[in-house]
Amino acid sequence: MARLFTAIACTTRRAVLTTLAVAALALPALPAQARGPEKIADVAEQVIDAVVNISTSQAAFAETRPGGPGGPGARPQLPPGSPFEEFFEEFFKNRRGQGDTPAPNRPPRRVNSLGSGFVIDASGIVVTNNHVIAEADEITVIFTDGRRLKAEVLGKDQKTDLAVLRVKSDKPLKAVKFADSDKVRLGEWVIAIGNPFSLGGTVTAGIVSARNRDINSGPYDNYIQTDASINRGNSGGPLFNMDGEVVGVNTAIISPSGGSIGIGFAVPSKTAMPVIDQLRNFGETRRGWLGVKIQQVTDEIAESLNVKPARGALIAGVDDKGPAKPAGIEAGDVVVKFDGKDIKEMRDLPRIVADTPVGKDVPVVIIRKGKEQTKTVKLGRLEDGEKPVPASTKSEPTPEKSVVQRTLGLQLSDMTDALREKYKIKDSVKGVVITEVDAASVAADKRLTAGSVLVAIEQEQITNAADVGTRVEALKKAGKKTALLLVATSAGDMLFVALPIN
Fold first, then answer.
1. Which structural domain range is residue 145 located in?
2. Within this chain, do residues 126 and 55 fall inside the same structural domain, yes or no?
């Protein structure tokens, strides 16, 4: 029986092979372009000497407990709510020893890591990712001919995850140029070269899968997505077009296992170039600053503000010392154009503002109460606006009364000193306190919580709880379907929320 089974199996295998052979003969040969452009080898040969390995070394203390921060298997966390929270991994963030706690009587040990980079100037200017070199004590750039040169950091930027290094070479280095990433098309072939898993000079190819990807890693997300194989160690390496020009800096992957699954992200050259120039020339970034807090214009908010179609960036708050305030921009305004550029959605505004020269007088088109207006803003510098300002210790006396109003799924109370203390509400926050949220209401779905403060309804200030019901009834009579609320957290962060009136 065993022999019979083997013979049948062999016969079946021959039949399958014969069938496959016939099928193969019947299929037409694939065109060369379908197999990938033959130019890949020429491009790789042309640029590979400009791609370098980045070796870093830092002191780290031994871990005091297994599985601690930075231990085996540790992964960085994205901001809460990111769609990539489970899978997104920034390379080298789980370097062994990172974040370790000093153990008694244990000397620090040296921890080495490897990444990628590329030369953009023959004099020795190298670009890589900030997270590759962020905590390094020593940085060494390794070239394809085996040379190892010590590097100094000219500047680094956490927001775009870019860093610029300089090495001193006794001979000119091979350098590559940037191309305009806005001209990259979906489906276009690209080449990634880098140092994955310490395997230097690795060339992979793929296509541009998407553009302008937001992965919630920073305020200026507009990544190029590619299926070119990118792995740990490719961080900071270049993404080339088929002309051998850099269109992106490989930065991140989505991966449940740590290896490539064909979803990688690169900082586009259009974003990288101005940052690199600033880091190279000034050692720091000099971004434009408007001095506002913004949020997305949802369909409900657009209806409440009479913005048709829904577009732009909603101003949720204005910095008292920022450029927007003296220009007359207010909370509730919707920015639809900045310096002649359309703002189609919220995340367009931070990128455009950041790329605009500091000190420039910029026309800003807003929609206020359904009508367009143009304001002129003298743009400030973001880095100045981010400097901490001493908190004011002055506070206005608050009357100790407690008028309670229940509406829109919210229980509201006049502000009192007791409520400020209970919910740790800053003195600068004025309005009516939300003391309870109906769990079955839309307000709960919008994540409103007790301790938040209702500041305004339909852009009109609220001073006491009794006014809220009156305002809501007036909106009903006017035929409004939603009420637009301006809500402040206890820390003072503002947020517009549209709630159905009925």
1. 43-167
2. yes
